[in-house]
Write a structure and sequence with these properties.
The structure holds 2 protein chains of 2 kinds. In chain A, 30% of the residues lie in helices and 25% in strands. Chain A contains 11 helices and 18 strands. Chain A has helices at residues 6-14, 42-55, 87-106, 125-140, 150-156, 184-197, 241-248, 310-323, 372-385, 399-402, 409-412; strands at residues 32-38, 60-63, 79-80, 118-122, 146-149, 172-176, 180-181, 201-203, 208-214, 217-223, 226-235, 255-266, 274-277, 282-286, 291-298, 332-342, 349-352, 358-362. Chain B has 1 helix and 6 strands. Chain B has one helix spanning 36-43, and strands spanning 3-6, 10-13, 18-22, 52-58, 66-72, 78-83. Chain B has one domain: Folate-binding fold. Classes of the chains: A alpha/beta, B mainly beta. Bound molecules: flavin-adenine dinucleotide and zinc ion (ZN). Residues 38-44, 63-66, 70-73, 75-79, 207-208, 236-238, 240, 259-261, 295, 338, 340, 364, 366-370, 416 of chain A line the site of flavin-adenine dinucleotide (FAD).
């Protein structure tokens, strides 16, 4: 792999930057692989990378129907945090956060993980009780967190409307200093490059159209490039989880919904952290380019259309103005949607399926970007050994039969 | 915004409606006679159709009546809406 560094940058500058090689090969699919990963988003690529790096399995293909990172990985608002309530989720998201902290060095690709902290605002007494409970739970699990009062919020973000007669007064917040944002495209490209370097085939424009089974066991997939055999298949397709489950002959407790986001015109630096509000229902951060990155909840209806309805946008923009009157004359530059696969307990499904050798890693809904490294880590373990890692064991499909749900609506209610 | 035709009030803005999810899910007549997997199937599993989807809506800020719709989940076009207790047109 050509290493990226200040020296390589200087060396290539001398030749006018004409000799950089592509970050990954355009591989042509072979007839058969040990492991096939369906879906070339961040989670699929991270899975491939850790399969090769941690488990030494390099006979791996990642099949992506479009282009790398063209799904939710490239459409999300990049909030990374680990302050989830339950032990199971705390372990999963904190594993991920720890990997984020060393990721740029590990894959020699700057993912621009900026630990600028995240505030989750509380607007009534019950919000504050829940925040205290969650922060206490986090600290017991070794996750950083503090409870701030109104003055503490105002000190960090002076232009939040904290007047006592606001319709939803700001009573305080939880504060996770190690949380932050990252560069979404870089995560996809960086993992693709690092996996490719270890021998993984990354095959773009290759849609999986069928799951081949014999005697209840997966034997490969049908694709737009023909049939490809595999010992094990891992499905990581976010909003299209239901479509792949249908191909394999079972159903999932998931519904696909549009989730929208907006960016504003660029502003001078004014917001150096991330602020989220469950009750007023909007969240915002400022990108390095100066744009405000704004989002909120899903459109209520099922949809695969990569776009949602205007009243949903109106809802989160009115929330934005309620909390930050200073933004009232801001113009929005871009708007888009992605398709998220929401689950009944706001937690993912990572593990075995009714088909032997076929594993799913789906249901991340509105909040899976933060989990990209950790999700790849545990899913690689699952695909390599055939059994879940202790971290993803609670996130089985089985939990919907046993009733042992991991209810994270409290921590995940405002998406992300 | 979708334009949804309430079977009683006619075409109205989506913001007057609330979504009720997949239609035609039938509660098992004898819950005690089925196993956990079958119960989970009823409570949690969804077809999550990509394409023509039968679903329920309620005209929450209008006549407040429930009805069924068939809508394409990719184009969002609504093919038909009809009262709960009637057959699809
Ligand atoms: C607007 C928005 C904002 C969000 N904000 C945040 C946030 O701030 N923080 C956070 O943590 N999360 C956020 N999320 C959620 C997050 O983006 C996702 O949970 C996460 O990116 C999912 O990653 P993935 O790799 O599983 O999915 P994706 O990146 O969607 O990758 C799945 C891939 O599978 C491919 N695929 C689908 N079907 C097939 C097929 N048949 N054959 C081959 N390939 C197929 C798709 O083309 C796609 O590239 C947000 C999502 C959206 C839409
Ligand atoms: Zn009506």
């Amino acid at each position: 792999m050509q290493s990226y560094s200040i020296f390589s940058l200087a060396r290539h500058a001398l030749s006018g930057h004409k000799n950089w090689r592509p970050a990954w090969r355009a591989a042509t699919p072979r007839r058969r692989y040990k492991v096939i990963i369906v879906g070339g988003g961040g989670h699929g690529l991270a899975t491939a990378y850790y399969l090769a790096k941690v488990h030494g399995i390099t006979d791996v293909a990642v099949l992506e129907k479009g282009w790398i990172g063209g799904g939710n990985t490239g459409r999300n608002t990049t909030i990374v945090r680990s302050n989830y309530l339950w032990d199971g989720s705390a372990a999963l998201y904190e594993k991920s956060l720890k990997l984020w902290e060393g990721l740029s060095q590990d894959i020699n690709y700057n993912v621009m993980y900026s630990q600028r902290g995240v505030l989750n605002l509380g607007h009534n007494l019950q919000d504050m009780r829940d925040i205290r409970r969650r922060v206490n739970a986090n600290r017991l699990n070794g996750i950083d967190g503090e409870v701030l009062d109104t003055a503490g919020v105002k000190q960090r973000v002076p232009f939040i409307n904290t007047s006592a007669d606001a319709r939803y007064p700001v009573l305080g917040a939880s504060w996770q200093p190690r949380a932050g944002i990252a560069r979404h495209d870089a995560v996809a490209w960086g993992y693709a490059r690092a996996a490719d370097d270890l021998g993984v085939d990354i095959i773009e424009n290759c849609e999986v159209t069928g799951v081949r089974r014999e005697h209840g066991r997966v034997v490969g997939v049908d694709t737009t490039h023909g049939e490809i055999g595999a010992d094990r298949v891992g499905v990581v397709v976010a909003g299209h989880a239901g479509v792949l489950a249908d191909m394999a002959g079972f159903r999932l407790p998931l519904e696909s919904h549009p989730l929208q986001a907006l960016v504003s015109e660029p502003l001078k630096p004014m917001l150096d952290t991330v602020v989220m509000s469950n009750a007023v229902h909007v969240y915002v951060s400022q990108s390095d380019k100066g744009e405000l990155v704004i989002g909120a909840g899903i459109d209520a209806y099922n949809g695969y259309g990569n776009r949602g309805s205007f009243q949903t946008m109106e809802h989160f923009l009115t929330a934005l103005i309620e909390l930050y009157p200073i933004f009232s004359r801001l113009r929005m530059l871009r708007h888009w949607g992605g398709i998220v696969d929401t689950s009944p307990d706001a937690s993912p499904i990572i593990g075995k399926t009714p088909v032997d050798g076929l594993y799913f890693n789906v249901g991340w809904g509105t909040g899976g970007f933060k989990a990209t490294p950790g999700s790849g880590w545990v899913f690689a373990h699952t695909l390599a050994t055939g059994e879940p890692h202790s971290i993803n064991a609670p996130f089985s499909l089985e939990r919907f039969h046993s009733g042992a749900l991991v209810d994270e609506h409290g921590a995940a209610a405002v998406a992300h | 915004m979708l334009l949804i035709t309430c079977p009683w009030c006619g075409p109205r803005d989506e913001s007057e409606f609330s979504y009720g999810g997949e239609a035609d899910i039938v509660r098992p007549p004898e819950p005690e006679a089925i196993d956990d997997a079958a119960w989970a199937d009823y409570v949690f599993m969804r077809t999550n159709t990509r394409g023509l989807h039968r679903e329920q809506w309620v005209h929450a800020h209008g006549c407040r009546r429930w009805f069924k719709a068939e809508r394409d989940t990719v184009t969002y076009d609504i093919r038909a809406t009809w009262p709960m207790n009637e057959e699809a047109p």
